[in-house]
Amino acid sequence: MGHVGVALAKAPRMRKKSAGRTTREAPMVIREARSDDARSLAELVTQLEHPATPAEIQQRLAVLPLGSVLVAETDTEIVGCLTLHVTPVLHRAGPVGRITMLIVREDMRGQGIGQALVEAAKQRFKLRGCVLAEVTSNLRLKPAHAFYERLGFRKTSWRFGKQLDA
Ligand SMILES: CC(C)(COP(=O)(O)OP(=O)(O)OC[C@H]1O[C@@H](n2cnc3c(N)ncnc32)[C@H](O)[C@@H]1OP(=O)(O)O)[C@@H](O)C(=O)NCCC(=O)NCCS
Question: Which residues are in coiled coils (predicted)?
Protein backbone atom coordinates (compact mmCIF):
# COMPACT_ATOMS: atom_id res chain seq x y z
CA MET A 1 0.00 0.00 0.00
CA GLY A 2 1.28 3.49 -0.71
CA HIS A 3 2.85 5.41 2.12
CA VAL A 4 1.01 8.70 2.17
CA GLY A 5 2.37 10.55 5.17
CA VAL A 6 0.06 13.38 6.16
CA ALA A 7 1.01 15.61 9.03
CA LEU A 8 -1.76 15.78 11.58
CA ALA A 9 -4.09 18.57 10.58
CA LYS A 10 -4.45 19.32 14.25
CA ALA A 11 -1.44 18.69 16.46
CA PRO A 12 -2.35 16.40 19.35
CA ARG A 13 -2.98 18.42 22.43
CA MET A 14 -0.81 17.58 25.37
CA ARG A 15 -2.94 17.11 28.43
CA LYS A 16 -2.30 15.92 31.93
CA LYS A 17 -3.74 12.43 31.96
CA SER A 18 -3.16 11.79 35.64
CA ALA A 19 -1.46 13.46 38.54
CA GLY A 20 2.19 13.97 37.84
CA ARG A 21 2.08 12.41 34.39
CA THR A 22 1.90 14.45 31.24
CA THR A 23 1.39 12.78 27.91
CA ARG A 24 4.55 12.89 25.87
CA GLU A 25 5.05 15.21 23.02
CA ALA A 26 5.77 13.12 19.98
CA PRO A 27 5.84 13.99 16.30
CA MET A 28 3.00 12.14 14.67
CA VAL A 29 1.82 11.40 11.17
CA ILE A 30 -1.27 9.86 9.72
CA ARG A 31 -0.49 7.55 6.83
CA GLU A 32 -1.88 4.57 5.02
CA ALA A 33 -1.22 1.21 6.62
CA ARG A 34 1.42 -1.19 5.26
CA SER A 35 1.60 -4.93 5.62
CA ASP A 36 4.45 -4.61 8.13
CA ASP A 37 2.03 -2.76 10.45
CA ALA A 38 0.12 -6.02 10.94
CA ARG A 39 1.37 -6.76 14.46
CA SER A 40 0.37 -3.35 15.85
CA LEU A 41 -2.91 -3.42 13.97
CA ALA A 42 -3.73 -6.88 15.34
CA GLU A 43 -3.24 -5.54 18.87
CA LEU A 44 -5.52 -2.57 18.25
CA VAL A 45 -8.26 -4.60 16.57
CA THR A 46 -8.09 -7.16 19.37
CA GLN A 47 -8.59 -4.34 21.91
CA LEU A 48 -11.87 -3.62 20.10
CA GLU A 49 -12.97 -7.16 20.97
CA HIS A 50 -12.41 -8.43 17.44
CA PRO A 51 -9.49 -10.78 18.13
CA ALA A 52 -7.17 -11.17 15.14
CA THR A 53 -3.65 -12.42 14.58
CA PRO A 54 -1.02 -10.46 12.65
CA ALA A 55 -1.26 -13.05 9.86
CA GLU A 56 -5.02 -12.56 9.60
CA ILE A 57 -4.59 -8.79 9.53
CA GLN A 58 -1.99 -9.12 6.78
CA GLN A 59 -4.43 -11.17 4.69
CA ARG A 60 -7.19 -8.60 5.19
CA LEU A 61 -4.89 -5.69 4.34
CA ALA A 62 -4.03 -7.43 1.09
CA VAL A 63 -7.65 -7.46 -0.10
CA LEU A 64 -8.92 -4.15 1.27
CA PRO A 65 -9.17 -1.36 -1.31
CA LEU A 66 -6.12 0.87 -1.46
CA GLY A 67 -6.25 3.63 1.13
CA SER A 68 -8.86 1.97 3.36
CA VAL A 69 -6.71 1.75 6.48
CA LEU A 70 -5.14 4.80 8.10
CA VAL A 71 -2.79 4.67 11.04
CA ALA A 72 -1.60 7.34 13.46
CA GLU A 73 2.08 6.82 14.13
CA THR A 74 4.49 8.48 16.54
CA ASP A 75 8.19 8.37 15.79
CA THR A 76 8.30 4.82 17.14
CA GLU A 77 4.89 3.18 17.16
CA ILE A 78 1.36 2.97 15.87
CA VAL A 79 -1.13 4.41 18.35
CA GLY A 80 -4.37 4.51 16.39
CA CYS A 81 -6.17 3.13 13.39
CA LEU A 82 -9.20 4.02 11.28
CA THR A 83 -10.77 2.16 8.38
CA LEU A 84 -12.82 3.90 5.70
CA HIS A 85 -14.86 2.95 2.68
CA VAL A 86 -16.43 4.89 -0.15
CA THR A 87 -19.72 3.54 -1.45
CA PRO A 88 -21.38 4.82 -4.62
CA VAL A 89 -25.17 4.83 -4.10
CA LEU A 90 -28.20 5.31 -6.31
CA HIS A 91 -30.21 7.50 -4.00
CA ARG A 92 -27.72 10.32 -3.42
CA ALA A 93 -25.93 12.73 -5.72
CA GLY A 94 -22.53 11.36 -4.68
CA PRO A 95 -20.90 8.49 -2.83
CA VAL A 96 -21.16 7.91 0.91
CA GLY A 97 -17.95 7.83 2.95
CA ARG A 98 -18.14 5.44 5.87
CA ILE A 99 -15.82 5.06 8.82
CA THR A 100 -16.03 1.38 9.71
CA MET A 101 -13.53 1.18 12.56
CA LEU A 102 -11.64 3.57 14.79
CA ILE A 103 -9.47 2.93 17.78
CA VAL A 104 -6.81 4.87 19.65
CA ARG A 105 -4.52 2.97 22.01
CA GLU A 106 -5.88 3.31 25.52
CA ASP A 107 -2.89 5.14 27.02
CA MET A 108 -2.90 7.67 24.14
CA ARG A 109 -6.55 8.72 24.28
CA GLY A 110 -7.67 12.28 24.96
CA GLN A 111 -4.87 13.91 22.97
CA GLY A 112 -6.68 14.63 19.71
CA ILE A 113 -5.52 11.52 17.86
CA GLY A 114 -9.02 10.15 17.24
CA GLN A 115 -10.15 13.51 15.95
CA ALA A 116 -7.12 13.78 13.65
CA LEU A 117 -7.86 10.34 12.18
CA VAL A 118 -11.48 11.33 11.54
CA GLU A 119 -10.34 14.59 9.91
CA ALA A 120 -7.96 12.63 7.64
CA ALA A 121 -10.85 10.35 6.64
CA LYS A 122 -13.08 13.36 5.92
CA GLN A 123 -10.39 14.88 3.70
CA ARG A 124 -10.23 11.66 1.69
CA PHE A 125 -14.02 11.49 1.42
CA LYS A 126 -14.14 15.05 0.10
CA LEU A 127 -11.40 14.35 -2.44
CA ARG A 128 -13.48 11.42 -3.69
CA GLY A 129 -16.66 13.47 -4.03
CA CYS A 130 -18.57 12.03 -1.08
CA VAL A 131 -21.70 13.91 -0.07
CA LEU A 132 -22.01 12.33 3.37
CA ALA A 133 -19.61 11.00 6.00
CA GLU A 134 -21.12 8.37 8.27
CA VAL A 135 -19.96 6.01 10.94
CA THR A 136 -21.28 2.80 12.39
CA SER A 137 -20.53 2.31 16.06
CA ASN A 138 -21.54 -0.61 18.22
CA LEU A 139 -24.23 0.18 20.82
CA ARG A 140 -21.87 -1.03 23.56
CA LEU A 141 -19.30 1.67 22.70
CA LYS A 142 -21.28 4.49 24.33
CA PRO A 143 -18.33 6.83 25.00
CA ALA A 144 -17.50 6.73 21.29
CA HIS A 145 -20.97 8.06 20.50
CA ALA A 146 -20.27 11.17 22.59
CA PHE A 147 -16.93 11.52 20.75
CA TYR A 148 -18.63 11.44 17.33
CA GLU A 149 -21.30 13.88 18.45
CA ARG A 150 -18.54 16.19 19.71
CA LEU A 151 -17.10 16.03 16.18
CA GLY A 152 -20.41 17.09 14.63
CA PHE A 153 -21.84 13.69 13.65
CA ARG A 154 -25.55 13.31 14.42
CA LYS A 155 -27.46 10.16 15.26
CA THR A 156 -29.83 9.80 12.29
CA SER A 157 -30.44 6.06 11.78
CA TRP A 158 -30.61 2.65 13.38
CA ARG A 159 -28.39 -0.05 11.99
CA PHE A 160 -29.89 -3.55 11.77
CA GLY A 161 -27.23 -6.26 11.68
CA LYS A 162 -27.61 -10.00 11.11
CA GLN A 163 -24.80 -12.51 11.31
CA LEU A 164 -24.69 -14.62 8.14
CA ASP A 165 -23.96 -18.32 8.34
CA ALA A 166 -20.86 -19.40 6.47
C1 LIG B 1 -13.43 7.03 20.71
C2 LIG B 1 -11.91 7.25 20.57
C3 LIG B 1 -11.48 6.82 19.18
C4 LIG B 1 -11.62 8.74 20.77
O5 LIG B 1 -10.23 8.97 20.49
P6 LIG B 1 -9.37 10.05 21.31
O7 LIG B 1 -8.08 10.20 20.64
O8 LIG B 1 -9.37 9.68 22.73
O9 LIG B 1 -10.30 11.36 21.14
P10 LIG B 1 -9.79 12.86 20.94
O11 LIG B 1 -8.76 13.14 21.97
O12 LIG B 1 -9.44 13.08 19.53
O13 LIG B 1 -11.12 13.68 21.29
C14 LIG B 1 -11.69 14.62 20.38
C15 LIG B 1 -12.82 15.34 21.09
O16 LIG B 1 -13.82 14.39 21.50
C17 LIG B 1 -13.99 14.45 22.91
N18 LIG B 1 -14.13 13.08 23.42
C19 LIG B 1 -13.26 12.06 23.28
N20 LIG B 1 -13.73 10.98 23.93
C21 LIG B 1 -14.90 11.36 24.48
C22 LIG B 1 -15.86 10.70 25.29
N23 LIG B 1 -15.70 9.42 25.66
N24 LIG B 1 -16.94 11.37 25.70
C25 LIG B 1 -17.12 12.67 25.35
N26 LIG B 1 -16.24 13.37 24.58
C27 LIG B 1 -15.16 12.71 24.16
C28 LIG B 1 -12.71 15.05 23.44
O29 LIG B 1 -12.91 15.67 24.70
C30 LIG B 1 -12.36 16.04 22.37
O31 LIG B 1 -13.17 17.20 22.51
P32 LIG B 1 -12.49 18.65 22.80
O33 LIG B 1 -11.80 18.99 21.50
O34 LIG B 1 -13.62 19.50 23.12
O35 LIG B 1 -11.53 18.44 23.91
C36 LIG B 1 -11.13 6.47 21.66
O37 LIG B 1 -11.64 6.79 22.92
C38 LIG B 1 -11.17 4.97 21.49
O39 LIG B 1 -10.33 4.39 20.82
N40 LIG B 1 -12.15 4.30 22.15
C41 LIG B 1 -12.25 2.85 22.13
C42 LIG B 1 -12.62 2.30 20.78
C43 LIG B 1 -13.93 2.84 20.26
O44 LIG B 1 -14.91 2.98 20.97
N45 LIG B 1 -13.92 3.15 18.95
C46 LIG B 1 -15.05 3.60 18.21
C47 LIG B 1 -15.56 2.45 17.40
S48 LIG B 1 -16.52 2.97 16.01
Answer: none
- Tell me if 112 sits within 8 A of 13, measured CB to CB: yes
Domain count, the chain: 1
* 158 in any annotated domain: no
Residues with a CB atom less than 6 Å from ligand 1: 48, 102-104, 109-115, 137, 141, 143-144, 146-147, 150
CATH assignment at residue 69 = 3.40.630.30
Give residue 114 CA to ligand 1 midpoint distance, Å.
6
Low-confidence ranges of the chain (pLDDT < 50): 1-11, 13-24
145 is a domain residue = yes
